[in-house]
Amino acid sequence: MTSTAFITHRDCHLHDMGSYHPEAPGRLAAIGDQLIAQGIDPYLVHHEAPLATFEQLGRVHPAAHLQNLKRKSPEHGIVHLDPDTAMCPHTWQAALRAAGAGIEAVDMVMRGEVENAFCSVRPPGHHAERETAMGFCFFNNVAVAVAHALAVHGLERVAVVDFDVHHGNGTEDIFRGDPRVLMTSIFQHPFFPYSGTEKPAENMLNVPLPAGADSEQFRAVVSELWLPRLREFRPQMVFFSAGFDAHQEDEMGNMRLTEKDFAWVTSEVRRVARETAGGRIVSMLEGGYSLSSLARSVTAHLRALADL
Ligand SMILES: [Zn+2]
């Protein structure tokens, strides 16, 4: 059995964009409950997320973006940044915890305290661009973690593997053209945020899939395109932008994956990480809105990360 950290914080439950909103606090509760119900919770190394600092966030977001968000943070009620993305009085703190979780995960994995780590946090991050909060995201959590691994731990090559049903436009915005970062992704196309297909940079392996894409199509992309490119790149650390909204039960998207596919891709990518990166993986929760399939999928992902 390997050791896997599970990093979260109660502040991440307090961010609430309104009772109608699918990116809801119940997502994290459903994940926690399912880990207990399946009996794997005791095998995880539980850790609380610290607050990310301005220095850590500033590696990928300009100070103006940080100050702008802080200024918009309401004392009461809800403030909409766009029709999908809103701040309540607890959002700022939750967003700092979500980004801080990734920093902590990188540090724990690099210190060798655990082989890999999963951050069960919200708000998610992969739509947040350098200067723009959007698509339920405020800070780009995975990008902040990647930048920390590069700047503080001196890594020279890291990979970001994004299997969320939506394109990770924010992560692409931040690392486009950066030879230290290889991003491999699938996403439903055409679909929000309608990006990722116009002449992607050399370090962006974007694979759009049509609505209705199933397990077979997904696994073919991973086997034939992602894994050879990852092996060629030889990452020293691998990050997952782990969104589970491509699940067939998730009504946010129209793909037809199951938790078995998420377990499979986790194992396949983990094999590469063991070949080139000493097994070092940091996984950040992104989407996944059907509570039942989200919780089962995260559990399957964790079983694959932890050999449980
Ligand atoms: Zn998504």
Can you describe this structure in just a few lines?
By secondary structure, the chain is of the alpha/beta class. The protein has helices at residues 11-14, 26-37, 54-57, 63-72, 91-110, 141-151, 169-175, 215-233, 259-276, 291-306, and strands at 4-8, 45-48, 79-82, 85-87, 116-119, 158-162, 181-188, 204-209, 237-242, 281-285.
Question: What do you see in this structure?
Answer:
With 308 residues, this protein is of the alpha/beta class. The protein has helices at residues 11-14, 26-37, 54-57, 63-72, 91-110, 141-151, 169-175, 215-233, 259-276, 291-306, and strands at 4-8, 45-48, 79-82, 85-87, 116-119, 158-162, 181-188, 204-209, 237-242, 281-285. The strands form two sheets. An eight-stranded parallel β-sheet has the order 2-1-5-10-9-6-7-8, sandwiched between helices. Strands 3-4 form a two-stranded antiparallel sheet. Strand 3 and strand 4 (85-87) form a beta hairpin. The radius of gyration is 17 Å and the shape is globular. It starts with a strand and ends with a helix. 55% of the residues are buried. The model has no long low-confidence stretch (mean pLDDT 98). The protein binds zinc ion. The site of zinc ion has 7 residues, from loops.
